What we know:
2 copies of one chain form a homodimer.
Chain A: E1 17-24, E2 27-34, E3 50-57, E4 59-66, E5 69-76, E6 80-83, E7 89-94, E8 100-107
Antiparallel strand pairs in A: 1-2, 2-8, 3-6, 3-8, 4-5, 4-7
Amino acid sequence: MxxxxxDLNTSPDTGERNLWLLDRPGLRIERIVSTGQASPPGFxxxxxxxxxxVLLQGAxxxxxxxxxxxxxxxxxxxDSVELPAHRRHRVESTCADPPTLWLALFWPAxxx
Amino acid sequence: MxxxxxDLNTSPDTGERNLWLLDRPGLRIERIVSTGQASPPGFxxxxxxxxxxVLLQGAxxxxxxxxxxxxxxxxxxxDSVELPAHRRHRVESTCADPPTLWLALFWPAxxx
Lengths: 112, 112
């Protein structure tokens, strides 16, 4: 299985890179490598699955549309955030050097 | 939420340390910090849940009782292993310096 820290392939020509590490009933695990990318203006993720994401390298800023209003979240290596299904969020910025390395977990909103 | 890389609390007096980072229907996430511990002789993990574990720091050796026989798996930082429910396994050794840091995910074997 792919080593999480190897083959990040962050050449200047490549965009954000997404690798599925595991895809099973009940759980999908993605490695995401960002090099400065951000969500387009006005774009919001609105996902049917639950997500938990941990930042392993680099840094990022998210905006999350919580029941208490918009929250800005600054993430450094080791920080994680839980994003329940349909918790709208966007990526405001990611660090390019070092590349920003995410481990993102997705599981069904209707888990027993 | 706890930063994955902080407060590892690896004083000589403490044993293996386990912190639940998330516990939801469908997914449990644990941070485990090992400092040289191993499974007792003859002990095997035999779990009702599926597991996927990634080693983020340190090193470890597992033995896994696979359908093809016993397999020895050496893990370095970034390596991961999938352990389906009831795939018997044991920890033969873990690195103490630096402490061995695991991120372990557990999800139900009966996921839809």
